[in-house]
Structure formats: structure tokens, C-alpha cells
From TrEMBL:
Domain (RGS) ranges: 61-177
Keyword Membrane: yes
Protein name listed in UniProt: Regulator of G-protein signaling 16
A GO biological process held by the record: negative regulation of signal transduction
One GO cellular component term: membrane
UniProt key word Lipoprotein: yes
Membrane disposition: Lipid-anchor
Organism: Nestor notabilis
GO MF entries: GTPase activator activity
Organism lineage string: Eukaryota, Metazoa, Chordata, Craniata, Vertebrata
Length: 180
């Protein structure tokens, strides 16, 4: 797939990303006939295990949401409906990466994360500016547990300012708070 995508002109890839974004927006417009049935609502496995207080704490801050395992699951499910789960997946991969102690594993994990999320036209490319992308690329030469810090921070800020407010307004989160 990657080789096939690499052969496409940049304008086609940009157009595909634009279409992806527009489809995500259309899926959330109820007047277009999209109904949220029980199967399309956030599935947390067992809502009974989620304490009411925990669900309500998610709206206090983005940090509260990220500290909660079920909060991350609910947010990830929401991001899938917007076709933007790569941002959270990248953030989680960076968190896992920081826990790596072996130098050889550190380098291989760093390259894998970079190729999957950061490099231009990566399969699950995150939305970061060119400068941050270049800084991250240079950091790979001497991979440390901090080599993705800037890119991770930019992605986190994007989620906090953009996706997180929409998550809090979503019907799924509203349903969870009503049950809480």
C-alpha cells in the first residue's frame, strides 16, 4: 500500500485527506440521516465498572481523561468516528516509548514510530508542522527517550484544543454523563 501511495502525486494525497475530513464531519450531522444506534455508541465494555465520578472528571481536564484507562478507550473510540485516532495512537506510542530502557530497542522503536506516524506521507501521519517533523527526524540519530517530546507535545495540544472539546460535546459522552 505504501509503495502505491508513494507513486501518487501529492495533490491526490492532499485531496484524499480532505475527503477523509469531510466524511468525518458528515457522519456527525444528524440531519443527513445518520442515526446513532446502540452499536455505534461508545462501547466501553462494561460501563458499570466506570465510576460515575471518573466519567465526570474527564470534563475537568484533558489530563484527567488521559489518566483514565477507560477515558482513553472512550476518547479513542470517539476519534475513530472522526478518522483521527492516529493522534492518540501516536501519543500513546510515545508514552510507551519513554518507558523503554534498552538502547537497541529504543532505536528500533524510535524508527518504527517515526515511519508510522511522523515522516512525510506516513501511513498514519500526525498533523505536525515541517519544523517539528525535521527536529524529530534529527533526534532519531541519537535516539533517547525524549526524541519525540516536541512532536508528542504538539499532537497533544492539537487533541486538547480540537478533538477533546468535540468529545465532551458528543452524544456518546453526554450519554455517559447522564448515566453517571
Amino acid at each position: 500500500i505504501c509503495r502505491g501511495l508513494a507513486a501518487l502525486p501529492i495533490s491526490c494525497l492532499e485531496r484524499a485527506k480532505d475527503v477523509k475530513t469531510r466524511l468525518g464531519i458528515l457522519l456527525h450531522k444528524p440531519e443527513l440521516g445518520h442515526r446513532t444506534g446502540a452499536s455505534s455508541k461508545l462501547q466501553l465494555g462494561s460501563r458499570q465498572r466506570d465510576s460515575s465520578r471518573e466519567v465526570l472528571e474527564w470534563r475537568e481536564s484533558f489530563d484527567q481523561l488521559l489518566k483514565s484507562k477507560s477515558g482513553v478507550t472512550a476518547f479513542h473510540t470517539f476519534l475513530k468516528t472522526e478518522f483521527s485516532e492516529e493522534n492518540l495512537d501516536f501519543w500513546l506510542a510515545c508514552e510507551d516509548f519513554k518507558k523503554t530502557r534498552s538502547k537497541t530497542k529504543l532505536a528500533s522503536k524510535a524508527n518504527r514510530i517515526f515511519e508510522e506516524f511522523v515522516q512525510n506521507e506516513a501511513p498514519r501521519e500526525v498533523n505536525i508542522d515541517h519544523e517539528t517533523r525535521e527536529i524529530t527526524r534529527k533526534n532519531l540519530s541519537g535516539a533517547t527517550s525524549a526524541c519525540f517530546n516536541e512532536a508528542q507535545a504538539k499532537t497533544r495540544t492539537l487533541m486538547e484544543k480540537d478533538s477533546y472539546p468535540r468529545f465532551l460535546k458528543s452524544a456518546s459522552y453526554q450519554d455517559m454523563t447522564k448515566q453517571a
